[in-house]
Structure prediction request, 564 residues.
Amino acid sequence: MNKEKWDSLESSRKANMILQRWQDLKLQREPFLNHWQQVSKFVAPYSGRFNIHEHNQKRDQRFILDAHATHALNILASGMMSGASSPARPWFKITPVDDELLNDYEVTTWCDEVQKKLLKIFQQSNTYNSLHQLYRELALFGTGVDIIYNDPINVIQHHLLSAGEYCVETNAVGDVDTMYRNFELTTVQAVKFFGYKNLPPEIQRAYDHGDLGVYWEFIHAIEPRIDRDYNANDNKNMPWGSYYIAVSSSALIQESGFEYFPCVVPRWDIMGIDAYGVSPSMQHLPDIKQLQQETLRKAELIEIYTKPPIQVPSSARQNPISLGAGAINFVQSTGADQSIKPIVQSVGDLNAIRQDIAEIKQSIDKAFFVDLFMMIQQTAGDRRTTVEIYALQQEQMLALGPVMERMQNECLGRLVEIGYRKLLESNQLPEMPASLQGNPITIEYTSVLAQSQKSVDINAVDRLVSALSASAQIMPEVLDRIDPDGYVDEYRDRLGVAPKLLRSKEEADQIRQQRAQAQQMQQQQQEEMIAAQNDLTYQQAQKTGAEASLAMQSLDALGGDSGL
Prediction:
């Protein structure tokens, strides 16, 4: 659609086109929506929003007889939060793409200041609360949607959506660039959010009549603008369009835009070209259902064992029978066997079903990476060494590695990028060094999970240095191959240490030069002291020789006088 045609459309026509687009996106989402409802039903009934018209809907927990999957889900969400984006430590750093600038002290200092500003706005906003819930949505439904708005105090404000209230779509390269969401507001909320004059007549009348608690349905659409005027600077010609539609009246009540896609939409795993991801909960839903079924069967077996069905003589129908402990019952004997006893002697193997439940729970734990995040607790009684535990963690990281790569690209990287743009828009970034202007910068992740991927390289460096140090005992010349500055820079880079903790290479060279001059002066002083000592020794030797010669002359003279 060209720009002239879109601009010429009436507001109601635009609204109808967006509503039709919403219906098309819901049809594409339908197969995943069924899976989401099943996951919510058997794992987390308080997650997901599948009917926006039920504002105080009751959550049904009767399908969860064993909450082991829910517990594993919480461990995975908490582990991802503390391992990938912990608020207690820096989990990323800003670095220049050009490796030659890594040794520029002004550049590294500027990158460090930008990193600290970003971490500060993440800390003071609701970023970390939203991230934890976002990880949980990912592990549950495979897709998470977080809209990031401007905030006059905290710079950014997150609005996290739950499965069932949004639809997304990707572009030609598979990146999510379109988001539609469905929500409801009361009359008073709509007036506060949109303004009285921007609302359709029916909502205005409801407000005028005092019907402030009536709910109204809205659609919010964010998608790329293809038919925009690239020379215009108004928000209706920005790269991404933002539209709010009142569903009841099919009215476009607000149109604006964004310079960039303001949503963070990570996906756990992608199957083909699907816009929605696949989660561990969705992939292992059969195991979770089987766990609930077998838990029910175990409870039935235990109840039968503890309160078995019994048979009694028909003659006892006229007399009450007590099955309490120590009770005495009197019955008439009309046959050979008149005892009170269970109808069945064997009701099933309880140990077998317990063993199968334990195996199912172990399979669920592996699906949610419980072994990785609870490694110390899982191996507490195995008497494993630290090296063995570390090796097990590395093995688990191999399975989580692809997921972490996607999280960094679609979630954490987008979050840092949007935060950087917000700082740039509010003029809160420090002045960029001249050497960095025109050069791109990138994000490097330094979280616990990211560092564990790099630790293999650090161990290789340590082994190399240890081997060279041992070889230097018999071949000292091997140490000439080690570059001290390269060693320090590599370690700092791998561990994500702030550059301010280390001096620049220029300062280090200056200190080395001063040390060499001091050593040279000290050596010169020592040489002068040795020369002076040698002169003194020589002078003393000459004096001693002269005294000895004088003594001999005196002795010769004494011998001549005595006639010897």
